[in-house]
Each structure stands twice: as structure tokens, then as C-alpha cells.
Design brief:
mainly beta, disordered N terminus, four-stranded antiparallel β-sheet, single chain, disordered C terminus, 30 strands, Methylamine Dehydrogenase, Chain H
């Protein structure tokens, strides 16, 4: 697989993407599209949650997990709370979850009607948003760094390179009544593995077919991991977001909702599109002048949103508020950029 990266640029928007108006005033920590529409939510270090309606003609109307009906946003952060924002009704946000340390992962799981939250307090908690206490608290081996859910698969990445896999359809795992009361919720690990990458886990993405997951690290490398023991020969890792001796973090992994290829975004300011089945890079985009800390596809894959801003990977001493502008851009992928290609060679070897 090619590791070539385009040259650095002082331009924050070398790919000529559509710029989102009125971006946050500080670094962006997450981006998420509504599962039902082109509503885009961003959370940022200025303690704000913002929402835009993205029209396909490129204009934006102002307004980080979404509820599956597209009406509600959940946001969490360093105040150790999760707030539920009823966007369409115009109601006030309410606190629906709490941890003992900052919350950095949120996932709404519609199949069991629960909110999952991951924290540096070494727990995953499950919440019925109608109840004040968690339905269940699952202890983790270390601090939660990343989480991905594609029901019934759930993977949690923690410090010390632990990857903990849960099967959300396991009868022993979740007994939940879709009423006002919770009978019991028991969580058991399906599998725990050590990350195939040698350095700290930065991001995760479950395969669309729930048969495995991607893991990205701070060392500019992605691992492709299948859960079935009979498929282990298909596992591999590859380098990305590097230039010469410079190595950058892989900050975000997103599967295309239609073609099931995926995008990586990194601290080098680049985002690239890949096909794991043919082990090829489909498109390398030009590097922006600042890191890309987070990204997201909309529900049909026609829009790829990405943030360009300082990501704090080099510490506060390298942050200059006077020059570190924050941007959100919208890239409209061409089919050639995101549609998978046949494996090169008759035998599939490159």
C-alpha cells in the first residue's frame, strides 16, 4: 500500500472544500452528522456545542452523538457530564449522565435504547435517559480512549493498548425492558486483545458488517482486525500520515456508509480514502496547514466534513491563538475517491 503524502502547504484549504460559516473559536473535538439529515454538530474547547444545517448547494444555516431519530444530540466533556440537547423542539439541555472524570466517548445504541458513555474514570456506563442512575457500570482495564459501536459489535480502546470487544446481542450481556424500568444489565467481555499497533490507541471504527474493526494510533499507523479466528490471515497494518521521518497521529477513522471504504484523518493535516479489501489507497488529498482532529460522513456519504485546527498534540506551548484559526470544511467526494477497486493482480498480491 502506498505511503506517499503530498507536500505541506500553508493553505488551510488546499482541496478547495466548502467552508462552514461561523466555526468555533477554539479547537474542535468532535464532528457528527445526524443519521436522518444534513445537520452537523461540532463540539469544541471553547465549551460550546454548535449545529449547522448543511444544504447541498454549499450554503450553511447556523444552529456529539445523535439519537437515531435525528432530533436529539448528546454532548459530554471535561465537566464529567453528558447533556441532552432537544434541537428540534428548542428546549433547554438537560444532564442525563455523569462520571467521575472527563467523558470522551458517547454512543447512542438504538437497538437497546441506551446511551453508552466512556470516561477516563475507567468505566463505560449505560443510561436510560429517563432515569437518573446508570443502567449499568462496566469497569475497564484502563482509561477509555476510543469507542465504536455497530450493533451488535462494540469495541473499546483503553490506555495500555487494551482493546475490549463486547457482543451486544449476547443474552447474558443485556436484559432490558423497553418500558420504564430496568430489570438487569450484565456486561461480559466477548474478547480482549492487545492492539496490533505498538503505540497508544487514538481512534476506532467498526466494520459495517460487524466482523471486525479498524484501530488508529498516535504513531501514524492503522490496523485492520477481524474478530473471527478463521479470518486472522486477513489482518494487517499499514503506515499513513507520515512524511519522511515525521510521524503524525491518526485522529479519525470513518467508513463510507454506501461503499464501505474508509477515510483516515491525521495531525499532518491530510485526509485520505482507502479500501481495506483491496489494500489500496483510493485518494490522497492535499495537506492542510493545520491538523485534522476529527471528521465525519453524512448519512449517504455525499458529504465529508472535517475540522482543521490545532489539535494540542504538541502541547500548549506550541499553540498560538493569534494564528491558529479554526475551520470546518465540507468535501463532496467523487465516486472515484470512495468506491472500492478490485484487488491488483490475479492472485490478490501486490
Amino acid at each position: 500500500m502506498s505511503n506517499f503524502l503530498t507536500n505541506s502547504s500553508s493553505n488551510p484549504n488546499p482541496n478547495k472544500s466548502i467552508e462552514v460559516n461561523q466555526p468555533p473559536t477554539d479547537s474542535i473535538s468532535s464532528l457528527n452528522f445526524s443519521p436522518k439529515s444534513n445537520l452537523l454538530v461540532a463540539t469544541s474547547w471553547d465549551n460550546q456545542v454548535r449545529c449547522w444545517e448543511v444544504a447541498r448547494d454549499g450554503t450553511n444555516v447556523l444552529c456529539s452523538a445523535w439519537k437515531d431519530d435525528g432530533t436529539t444530540v448528546f454532548s459530554g466533556g471535561c465537566d464529567k457530564q453528558v447533556k441532552m440537547w432537544p434541537l428540534l423542539s428548542g428546549g433547554q439541555p438537560i444532564t442525563v449522565a455523569m462520571h467521575d472524570a472527563p467523558i470522551n466517548q458517547i454512543a447512542w445504541i438504538p437497538e437497546i435504547n441506551l446511551l453508552a458513555t466512556g470516561s477516563w474514570d475507567r468505566t463505560i456506563k449505560y443510561w436510560d435517559t429517563r432515569q437518573p442512575n446508570p443502567a449499568h457500570t462496566q469497569q475497564l482495564p484502563e482509561r477509555c480512549y476510543a469507542m465504536t459501536v455497530k450493533h451488535p459489535l462494540m469495541v473499546v480502546g483503553t490506555a495500555d493498548r487494551n482493546l475490549v470487544v463486547y457482543n451486544l446481542q449476547n443474552p447474558q450481556l443485556c436484559k432490558y425492558l423497553l418500558a420504564l424500568t430496568i430489570v438487569t444489565l450484565q456486561q461480559v467481555e466477548f474478547k480482549r486483545i492487545v492492539s496490533p499497533l505498538k503505540y497508544q490507541t487514538r481512534c476506532l471504527a467498526a466494520f459495517p458488517d460487524q466482523q471486525g474493526f479498524l484501530v488508529g494510533s498516535i504513531e501514524g499507523r492503522v490496523g485492520v482486525h477481524h474478530l473471527d479466528d478463521s479470518q486472522q490471515a486477513k489482518n494487517f497494518t499499514f503506515k499513513c500520515h507520515r512524511e519522511g521521518n515525521e510521524i503524525y497521529s491518526v485522529n479519525s477513522l470513518n467508513f463510507h456508509p454506501v461503499h464501505h471504504t474508509f477515510a483516515t484523518a491525521g495531525s499532518d493535516g491530510a485526509f485520505n480514502f482507502w479500501d481495506k479489501d483491496s489494500k489500496q489507497r483510493l485518494k490522497a488529498m492535499l495537506r492542510c496547514s493545520q491538523p485534522v482532529p476529527c471528521s465525519a460522513f453524512n448519512n449517504d456519504g455525499s458529504i465529508y466534513a472535517y475540522a482543521v485546527c490545532y489539535d494540542w498534540s504538541k502541547g500548549a506551548e506550541n499553540h498560538n491563538p493569534a494564528t491558529a484559526k479554526t475551520n470546518i470544511f465540507l468535501h463532496l467526494p467523487q465516486e472515484s475517491e470512495v468506491k472500492g477497486k478490485p484487488r491488483i493482480g490475479a492472485t490478490g498480491r501486490r
